[in-house]
Amino acid sequence: MSTPTYIYKIVPCTNHMPATLPEALPVSDLDNSSGFIHMSTTHQVPGTLKRFFKDHERVYILRVKYADVEHLVKWENSHGTAPGGVGEPDMFPHIYNDLRLGSGEIESWVEWESKGDWDEAINDAVAKKWFVY
Q1: Helix H segments across 64-131?
Q2: At the top level of CATH, which class does the domain 6-127 belong to?
């Protein structure tokens, strides 16, 4: 599989995203207990949304330029217990950097709204060429 241009973090819209991103956003309980930041490729985001965010009306999608964090990324299964190759379908990019995801890593972000499912939001972001592999 090819190397992605971007990797993505899905964050529930429980708080407003600050106009200026801090050096580090609060991490999820899952990231904190895992010791790394769970990320997804464009191919993985739809499944991640359907599995973990199906009951959310809105989410933030944070876009990180892969080349900027490549040295911090390990490709592993979703639990971080088995290594794999870059871009393999069942391997996820995990950022190991003391749980810091903020202004130094995030290139841009958008807010997506679910309208029963996430397909419309995904298709809209693809059409705008924001959501790319």
Answers
A1: 66-69, 119-127
A2: alpha beta
Whole-number Å distance between alpha carbons of 101 and 99: 7
Distance of alpha carbon 58 from alpha carbon 53, whole angstroms: 9
Name beta bridge partners: 112.
Answer: 59
Q: For the chain, percent helix, then strand, then coil, each to nearest 5?
A: 25, 25, 50
- Please give the order of strands across the beta sheet that includes 58-65: 6-12, 58-65, 106-113
pLDDT, one tens digit per residue, over 19-62 is: 899 999 999 999 999 999 999 999 999 999 999 999 999 999 99
Q: What is the pTM assigned to this prediction?
A: 0.94
How far apart are the C-alpha atoms of 11 and 5, rounded to whole Å? 20
- What is the pLDDT, as a whole number, of residue 3? 95
Residue 12 C-alpha from the chain's centroid:
11
The edge-to-edge listing of strands for the beta sheet with 37-38 is 37-38, 92-95, 73-76
- Residue spans of the domains in the chain: they are 6-127
